Amino acid sequence: MNPQYNFEGQVALVTGAASGMGLAAARAFAQAGAAVVLADLNKDAVQNAARDLTDAGHQAIGVVCDVTDEDQAAAMVGSAVDTYGRLDIAFNNAGIQAPPSDAADESAEEFDRVNAVNLRGVWAAQKHELRQMRTQGSGAIVNCSSLGGLVGLPERAAYHASKHGVIGLTKSAAVEYAPKGIRINAICPGVIDTPMVADMLEGQADAMAEILKQQPIGRLGQAEEVAEAVLWLCSPGAGFIVGVALPVDGGFTAH
């Protein structure tokens, strides 16, 4: 039985909300009563996702945002506040993968591309979310790291660097803003059944089979399971949880 959450009267912002874990979280927040701002680079997909929620009787808007552009990140938060008057919750989920590469052969361009989305994008979104939340004196932010933020794996240096960075960003901001009534945490998903992972499974079947062997639960995670962890971290039930990097990985990092 899934726990029940009540986010009535609250406003939640989710980046990377057009598919995968972001879409699952946006749906879960809406079903729990929150007004939801879905943000994504894919205009048609994010607007369709928002429309599905409004058609189901929820409050939702879709916003196009490239999180690598700080002005767009600021405008995204501005849209939330202009539409709903406040911002209570943010799930900074937008992220991309990097192709496997020998650490000696990774290009600077690939390193910059991955870190622009996975680390700088989280930094920019969090920065502008905090500017609104500190005026309210309340809020909860969850940043999406990865099991790659907790461990190292061969041929993943740039990606893991970006996800380790998210945890450092989260912890530092968390201790700064906890006294101001704002809780910041990170989640570290394992191998989750999302479109991004499906692409990896198709192109790197042997490598992914090896990774799954290290996931003791013996299966892919579901996007909805990650969403449940995000909702808990944003709920009063996690009111004393600050600055954690919570594995949601089927036991991968418990080895």
From TrEMBL:
Keyword NAD: yes
SMART domains named among the record's database cross-references: PKS_KR
InterPro entries assigned: KR_dom (IPR057326), NAD(P)-bd_dom_sf (IPR036291), SDR_fam (IPR002347)
EC number, as in UniProt: 1.1.1.47
Keywords assigned: NAD, Oxidoreductase
Domain Ketoreductase residue range list: 10-190
Gene Ontology terms, MF aspect: glucose 1-dehydrogenase [NAD(P)+] activity
Enzyme class per UniProt: oxidoreductase
Coiled coil: none
Annotated PANTHER family: DEHYDROGENASES, SHORT CHAIN, ESTRADIOL 17-BETA-DEHYDROGENASE 8-RELATED
NCBIfam families referenced in this protein's UniProt entry, alphabetically: PRK07231.1 (NF005559)
Family statement drawn from the similarity comment of this UniProt entry: Belongs to the short-chain dehydrogenases/reductases (SDR) family.
Protein's UniProt name: Glucose 1-dehydrogenase
Lineage: Bacteria, Bacillati, Actinomycetota, Actinomycetes, Streptosporangiales
